Amino acid sequence: MSVTKPAVVLVNLGTPDAPTTAAVRRYLKQFLSDPRVVEAPRLIWFWVLRLIILPLRPRRVAKLYASIWQQDSPIRLVAQQQAEALAGRFDCTVRYAMSYGSPGFEAVLDELADQGHDHLLILPLYPQYSGSTNGAVADALARWVRTRREVPGLTLVKDYWQNPAWLDAVADSIRRFREQHGEAEKLLFSFHGIPVSYQDKGDHYGERCHHSAALIAERLGLRAEQWMVTFQSRFGPQEWLNPYTDKTLEKWGKEGVRSVQVVCPGFSADCLETLEEIDGENREVFLHAGGESFAYIPALNAEPSHIDALEAVVRAHL
Ligand SMILES: C=CC1=C(C)c2cc3[nH]c(cc4nc(cc5[nH]c(cc1n2)c(C)c5CCC(=O)O)C(CCC(=O)O)=C4C)c(C)c3C=C
Ligand SMILES: [Fe+2]
Ligand SMILES: [Fe+2]
């Protein structure tokens, strides 16, 4: 009747099924239709999305995806590795799911509940809560609950940037990188942005990013002038959290900063926004503006120290 063991579901943002215009269009349609992601007036956005964004953006973005594609999209390959590695740590089922695209979050929840798991622990893989990411997972969970006659016990992890195991894992990865490659003049912590209007309405995501970076810098013993926090991945004409990553790298290059290392601790897996936007586009911006050396420090992905941290987060909530 029921399996008494809990199951863990790791949830990340999502990605297209293929690096093609059609697949990117399907993905962006689902993603950008979520009112948690784009908080524009619904009727206006319905038409802007269909008449401007979806006819134009997918072709360009599909090329960017093609440039980072492996056997699959990196974010999905990493999710699979993370789930496998974490499953090795407990006597319980661990699955991964995506908020947009596949494997769909609600389908994975159905499967686990149908197998009789009577407690599901949902861990969104965003270290810093934002309504636009973790909030969207909560919405999807609430929608799913309404479809189930028998609702399992549910635990939703809000976020985990304060967990010492996660802070140690990020600090150690930076330390190891600097031991291998030497130290750059500047260490830039780049986080995905959100529109300033979301912050004005009460989303404290930006503060959580600043606190995270400060705690990591403290572990590394960095002086204030050695590091900085910026925000990347702007979308649309609104003002987003600043300072912006690209503008900062351009300014540094022009001002004579010779070497930078960039780390993106808001991304639990490498993806389009780190591999292409940071290690591709922003590298070019810095070098073009006069910088001499640019290095991207990879996300924690399925590193054992990351799995240690995720294990600690799960154990703290089970
Ligand atoms: C209004 C739009 C967007 C908000 C708000 C937003 C917040 C947000 N996103 C992430 C993490 C990721 N975003 C990724 C891609 C991506 N993000 C947006 C838009 C918003 N994000 C778009 C349109 C895209 C797709 C690419 C593009 O068309 O430019 C990804 C990468 C996924 C992949 O397939 O590799 C991640 C991860 C966070 C953490 C966040 C708020 C805190
Ligand atoms: Fe995004
Ligand atoms: Fe981007």
UniProtKB/TrEMBL annotation:
Its main location: cytoplasm. It is found in: Cytoplasm. It comes from the Bacteria. It catalyses: heme b + 2 H(+) = protoporphyrin IX + Fe(2+); Fe-coproporphyrin III + 2 H(+) = coproporphyrin III + Fe(2+). Pathway: Porphyrin-containing compound metabolism; protoheme biosynthesis; protoheme from protoporphyrin-IX: step 1/1. Belongs to the ferrochelatase family. This is Ferrochelatase. The lineage of its organism: Bacteria, Pseudomonadati, Pseudomonadota, Gammaproteobacteria, Oceanospirillales.
